[in-house]
Design a protein that fits this description.
6hp_glycosidase-like_sf, alpha+beta, GDE_N_bis, four-stranded antiparallel sheet, nine-stranded antiparallel sheet, Beta-galactosidase, Chain A, domain 5, Glycosyltransferase
């Protein structure tokens, strides 16, 4: 399906490439907010016929421009409308909870022409889980349609007691209006232009966005994007492919920003995951730290507001646990699904603490840690008491909810944790990367506690971290493979399949130098590195499948977490190998955009192969090119100790790189790197941080 999607804050529109929402389509097209479809048919006709598509672009996320024309029309030998004589342009944008669409028509026929433009409409108020075919259940009913000369308002009363409505308005006199259609007559001279603008405003329990002139909405929207760019670090490079990837990533992340009252944070991806999403939002915010650290603050506050408070097996909730995903639709409101929120993730809680500690290293802002002090303590309690189910020192997961998720790490498909003989591991399962997250969280929080004067608590956390480090190597290391197991199963047996998961542990600082070196070497070996990136599972393993979701595919964000570790440990050569592979892959996808994932086939076999179903844009994929920049710079600040480590090495094909206005502490760092005779040289153009710069790690 070649779909088109635009989004702003909590409202998004998903249509076909003509801009239409045909009734009863198989792709879930519609206008959505709060996990409900507020427009299920939006079908443009000219003289009751489908226009012909000329061009349709999806490179902009906040607006769309679709160009069409008319088919040839005649009846009983009499000309009605000559083919391709009318240009039809659909311009749309979303602002403040309202969709604006202007249908502009222009005649290129040499004589006056007349025709009708109609829009076929319907609203089903269907819950997103039902639209996607994941769930059925008790729902409410439509309660009527209100008509005025220039609007139709559809009403619905949900089984959850929530009243929902959709108001469709227009600014031109209609010649015909019914419950399902509004039509307009146009008379045009040669090259004359006329238009009609629709406004579609969803309403939930009487609350809706403010409708304004579309020109004002566009001006406000552009201003918000200009403000985004102003507050985001800027990159300039002589590598056009790197430049395009970074520019696209920054724009994609902007459109994925949402604010539910605690500050901006990235939702997971479009079209189906435009909601607060534990690990996805946390990792995307982590990727953005060098570019806009304020996003981490909004992400942390948003997730803290939903921290678990009780033991609730239906939602896999426990006190102190950070949520996985929250939904706002009718099925959630009636508790027919557990996403209110749902807590079935093993990694969101340590990732929450990890993001907080990294945010503090970039900003020196201890006030956020003070604000979230109880959240921190509750999260640490969860790690030790509920996360470690059997007291063995490792955090493990086990599904409690009947409608929850079985595998609760980032590789959450049912076949993602598999032994080398092909048997699926049984829960409780302790994942390798999660132990790294816990180590990084505890050492990072200990550093914050030291600055807060909580020496005793800091010492305790550091002791726990060192114990975890020792146990991890003892129980996860596979000497015969010179690599770590993906997990321990319920019998505490190593799940020995070679996967990318242990690569995340590099970033934590938990590995000894020898094992870190061996881990890096394995990840860039031919079994893992396809030429386009590091596979989720090594080629040759029993579970390996390059077409799978998690067992041999390539996920850019997975690579980005590994890249951070490689760079932090000064494995720049290997990191640059991976970066070049991903940049090579990106050239085979639309709009200079790294996809959520792609197939793990080797580069020697031809172009990178698209995975059949993937979110686009997707937050942690969009954030991956930003990690390229941090990795290439070898940039790791420590605002708590007022030092900045920079160790740049430009990859092949990149000879110049300038990054301006990197916010660190209370100041800014701007640097340039140039390559001469294969060596990279750093120039500090600006340093108002007051911190000492170390160029050797």
């Amino acid at each position: 399906m070649d779909y088109r999607v635009i989004k702003e804050n909590d409202l998004f529109l998903l249509t076909d490439d003509k801009g239409n929402i045909p009734l009863n389509n198989d792709y879930g097209l519609g206008l959505y907010t709060k996990d409900t479809r507020f427009l299920s048919k939006f079908d443009l006709k000219i003289n009751n016929e489908d226009p012909i598509l000329l061009s349709s672009s999806a490179d902009e996320n906040y607006s769309a421009n679709i160009l069409m024309t008319n088919p040839h029309m005649e009846k009983d030998g009499e000309l009605i409308l000559w083919r391709e004589s009318v240009e039809i342009q659909r311009k749309r944008l979303i602002y403040d909870g309202v969709l604006y669409e202007t249908v502009q028509v222009k005649s290129f026929y040499p004589k006056p022409v007349e025709f009708d433009i109609s829009m076929q409409l319907d609203v089903d108020f269907t819950d997103m889980f039902i639209v996607r075919g994941f769930q059925s259940g008790e729902t409410g009913k439509r309660t009527g349609i209100d008509h005025t000369d220039k609007s139709l308002t559809y009403h619905y009363e949900g089984a959850d007691g929530v009243k929902r409505s959709t108001r469709v308005g227009w600014d031109r006199e209609a010649i015909n209006t019914s419950d399902a259609e509004v039509a307009f007559h146009f008379s045009l001279d040669h090259e004359e232009i006329q238009s009609v603008t629709f406004t579609i405003a969803p309403e939930v329990d009487g609350v809706s966005g403010e409708i304004m002139a579309p020109e004002q909405a566009l001006e406000n929207l552009k201003a918000s994007y200009e403000n985004w760019e102003k507050n985001t670090a800027r990159v300039q490079t002589d590598s056009s492919r790197l430049q395009r990837l970074v520019d696209r990533g920054i724009l994609d992340l902007r459109v994925l920003m949402t604010d539910i009252g605690y500050g901006q944070f990235p939702v997971a991806g479009l079209p189906w995951f435009g909601v607060p999403f534990g690990r996805d939002s946390l990792i995307a915010a982590l990727q953005m730290l060098p570019f806009n650290a304020e996003i981490a603050k909004g992400t942390l506050r948003t997730l803290a507001s939903q921290q678990g408070t009780k033991v609730d097996p239906w939602r896999d909730e426990q006190p102190g646990k950070i949520m996985h995903e929250i939904r706002y639709g009718e099925l959630a409101g009636t508790e027919q699904i557990p996403f209110t929120p749902y807590y079935g993730t093993i990694d969101a809680t340590p990732l929450f603490l990890m993001l907080l500690t990294e945010y503090t290293k970039w900003t020196g802002d201890l006030s956020l840690a003070e604000e979230l002090q109880q959240t921190i303590e509750n999260a640490l309690m969860w790690i030790d008491e509920y996360g470690d189910r059997d007291g063995d020192g490792f955090v493990e997961y086990h599904q409690e909810s009947s409608k929850g998720i079985a595998n609760q790490g980032w590789k959450d498909s049912a076949d993602s944790v598999v032994h080398r003989n092909g048997d699926h591991a049984e829960t409780p399962i302790a994942l390798s990367e999660v132990q790294g997250y816990v180590y990084q969280a505890k050492t990072g929080i200990a550093a914050i506690y030291e600055k807060q004067g909580k020496a005793e608590e800091a010492v305790r956390l550091l002791k726990e971290a060192e114990e975890l480090k020792s146990k991890f190597h003892e129980q996860f290391w596979m000497e015969d493979q010179s690599f770590y197991a993906i997990a321990l199963d319920k019998e505490k047996k190593k799940v020995g399949t070679l996967t990318s998961n242990p690569g995340h542990v590099l970033y934590s600082g938990m590995l000894e130098e020898e094992q870190a070196d061996q881990t890096v070497s394995k990840l860039v070996s031919p079994a893992f590195f396809s030429g386009y990136g590091i596979r989720t599972m090594a080629e040759g393993e029993a579970g390996y499948n390059p077409m799978s979701y998690h067992d041999g595919s390539i996920w850019p964000h997975d690579n980005s977490m590994i890249l951070l570790g490689m760079s932090k440990l000064n494995h720049q050569k290997q990191a640059n190998q991976v970066i070049n592979g991903l940049m090579d892959a990106a050239q085979h996808f639309e709009y200079d955009r790294l996809p959520e994932l792609f197939c793990g086939y080797g580069a020697s076999g031809g172009p990178a192969v698209k995975y059949p179903v993937a979110c686009s844009p997707q937050a942690w994929a969009a954030g991956t090119p930003l990690v390229f920049i941090q990795t290439v710079l070898g940039l790791f600040p420590d605002a708590l100790n007022e030092v900045i480590s920079v160790s740049p090495e430009l990859p092949e094909g990149v000879n110049e790189l300038t990054v301006q206005s990197i916010k660190i502490g209370n100041g800014y760092l701007s640097v340039s790197v140039r390559k001469e005779n294969g060596k990279s040289f750093l120039t500090v153009n600006e340093n108002t941080t007051g911190y000492t710069i170390h160029t050797d790690k």
